[in-house]
Specification:
156 residues; 8 helices; globular
């Protein structure tokens, strides 16, 4: 029983450590790197994004849903109840300075989301009915053929 208590304490200490500076460096540093590497695409592609949302390119694209429907699905998957309540909790716990860090993480998060969505588009597959499917499981299957074999079990 003492071993379980010590093991539990170790897990709590490790969790407190990993979710502090290392996770900040990993998320913000990695996102900043992608933000710069993308050529600041969240800003430079804003005009094109607004044209897509207005439906300018819908008649030229094959598919089952329109660009606006795809955007709505992506936003619904990204912004959920946790994000809405998370903002209120962050401001309550961290004060007004939390807003600055939310904006900073939003900028680097846009670049991270851009790359994850780009990979989902690049590595799509078809299901048994012939419908186009995408997502992390196809990125792992098609894009990480050699190095992703150990990750496949997570999405099956």
């Amino acid at each position: 029983m003492a071993f379980l208590s010590q093991f539990g304490d170790f897990i709590v200490q490790f969790s407190n450590w990993i979710w502090d500076t290392p996770m900040l460096i990993l998320l913000m540093g990695g996102g900043l790197l992608l933000f710069i590497y993308s050529g600041f695409v969240p800003f430079t592609g804003l005009g094109h994004a607004l044209k897509v949302v207005r439906g300018k390119y819908d008649e030229n694209l094959p598919g089952q849903i329109s660009s606006r429907q795809a955007l709505s699905a992506a936003i619904a998957a990204t912004v959920g109840l946790g994000n809405i309540s998370g903002v209120a909790i962050a401001i309550n716990m961290g004060g007004p300075g939390a807003i600055f860090w939310m904006w900073m993480s939003a900028f680097v998060g846009m670049a991270t989301k851009y790359f994850s969505c780009s990979l989902a588009i690049m590595y799509r597959g078809k299901d048994s009915a012939g419908e186009v499917q995408g997502g992390p499981m196809y990125v792992i299957e098609e894009g990480m053929v050699k190095n992703g074999a150990h990750l496949r079990f997570c999405f099956r």
